[in-house]
Amino acid sequence: MRFLGITETCDLAALYLSLLDEGHAVRVAISEPAARGTAAGLVEQVDDWRTCLPWIREAGEDGVILFESVSEGFGALQDQLRAEGYQVIGGSAYGDRLENDRAYAQALLTELGFPGGHVWEFGDPAEADSFIASRPARYVLKFSGPGYASSDNYLGQLADGADVRAILAARASGQQDNRDVFILMEFIEGIEMGVGAYFNGERFLEPACLDWEHKRFFPGDLGELTGEMGTVATFTRTGHFFDRTLKKMELHLRGRGHCGYVNLNTIVNEEGIWPLEFTCRFGYPGFAVLAPLQQDGWGELFRAMLDGKRRSFRVDPGFSVGVVLTTPPFPYSRKQVDTPVGLPVVFRGGLSAEDRRNIHFGEVGLSAGRIVTSGLYGWTMVVTGTGATVADAVATAYHRTERILVPNLRYRHDIGARLTAGDYATLERAGVFGPA
Predict the structure, then answer these.
(1) Which of 186, 205, 230 is the last residue of a domain?
(2) Long-range contacts for 130-136 (Cβ within 8 Å, ≥24 apart)?
(3) Which residues have C-beta within 8 Å of that of residue 1, sequence separation ≥ 6?
(4) Confidence (pTM)
(5) With contact defined as beta carbons under 8 Å apart, do 263 and 196 qualify?
(6) How many domains does the structure of the chain reveal?
(7) Is 423 inside a domain boundary?
(8) How many CA atoms lie within 13 Å of 269's alpha carbon, on the beta-carbon side?
């Protein structure tokens, strides 16, 4: 098969490398100049993806275009390419709206039977400040639209909302950018978990996955909100939760042209399941964390998503744990902090075939025959481990992580700790999982 990746920063480098290992042809167009060192020397890069459309077209059903992000206009572009007869995996204009228009997504989820009445949309910081003053509570501040990083959002800590009001006041006075549209979400105590599945345009392929993300930069959930620092995921006993949550979206996605991964993040407590937000694209590092549990290669899985005939795919039981390994300037970009690229990536001892399958390169490239750091952010790689239990998968992942040497390497050492310390048992008692 032939694959053309259209991306800003090449977050799916490990996926492109896997496709090459499977024997497929891959070309990638990276629009961000500072990111073009990512996968350099490892994956063929092109300056303009449009010049590769004939290459994809002549491959017929074996030609696939992959999109990574929900950037402005990318969903509509994917819909247009599908209308022109191309096979496209990634998202859609509708998927972009679900992810970027938070108020719209929450209203739709309320119509589907999820709890509502705890989310309010604003376009003016002063208006939101007055709202909190009249209704003191702990709030979460989230911005709508594709141009915002995780660090733009804020998880309120004070019961009267005074800390959120301070942030809004700073924006209103011009000390920070005055964002156009945002929501306030009443803080909900519980266990955060996600449910995700691949959508083929008509239905979700099963099984779905369940995941538990770790978004803060430092252990103990301290520091900046990052894209993600590590994840626990499984395809085992997921059907019960999937049926109660994401599967309800099947009819709404059908006929919209969407083909790709969809995830719904939630809070679970004694009162029910509270949806937080959608991800309507491949998540990083989510795709890498799922890969070791998927028996089929990415090429075979993509073919199943495109032909519309299969309703399931093969997976292994148990858990996968992914640890994100970063280097400076992460969690910022080189546009904000000037740090060097080209740091050597060295492995302690030889790597087995299983080790290689569980080391997912991110922002690295090839220089003088050596793997070195590259890219815009410092998302260096993801290391995964699998096991029959979360604890087994954690131990395997960290055993591999300790064998990787990069100057100034940082990562969290507590991925999965809360889950093994009690959260998983709490969810089990609450009947979240399907039959054993």
Answers:
(1) 186
(2) 131/184, 132/161, 132/164, 132/165, 132/168, 132/184, 133/165, 136/160, 136/161
(3) 19, 24, 25, 59, 62, 63, 64, 299, 302, 303
(4) 0.94
(5) yes
(6) 2
(7) no
(8) 9
Inside any domain, residue 336: no
Q: Which helix (H) or strand (E) holds 326?
A: strand 319-326
Q: Which of 165, 186, 207 represents a domain boundary (last residue)? A: 186
Rg (CA), the chain: 21
- Give me the phi and psi of 406, to 5 degrees please: -140, 135
Domain assignment present for 380? no
| DSSP 8-state class, residue 431 | T
What stretches of 256-308 adopt beta strand conformation (E)?
A: 260-269, 272-279
Identify the burial level of 118 via C-beta atoms within 10 angstroms of its C-beta, where 0-12 means exposed, 13-18 middle and 19 or more buried: middle
* 261: CB partners within 8 A, 6+ apart: 196, 197, 198, 199, 279, 280, 281, 282, 283, 286, 287
Phi, psi dihedrals of residue 230, rounded to the nearest 5°: 170, 160
* Residue 22's CATH number: 3.40.50.720
Nearest to 117 by CA among 279, 271, 225, 240: 271
Report if residue 27 sits inside a domain: yes
Run of H or E residues at 111: helix 102-111
Peptide bond into 285 cis (omega under 30): yes
User: pLDDT digits over 406-436, tens only?
Assistant: 999 999 999 999 999 999 999 999 999 988 7
N- to C-terminal Cα distance for the chain? 38
CA neighbours closer than 13 Å in the CB half-sphere of residue 340: 7
Tell me the pairing of strands 139-143 and 182-186. Answer: antiparallel
Domain interval for residue 145: 119-186
In tens, the pLDDT along 369-398 reads 999 999 999 999 999 999 999 999 999 999
Angle made by CA atoms 436, 208, 268, in degrees to the nearest 5: 75
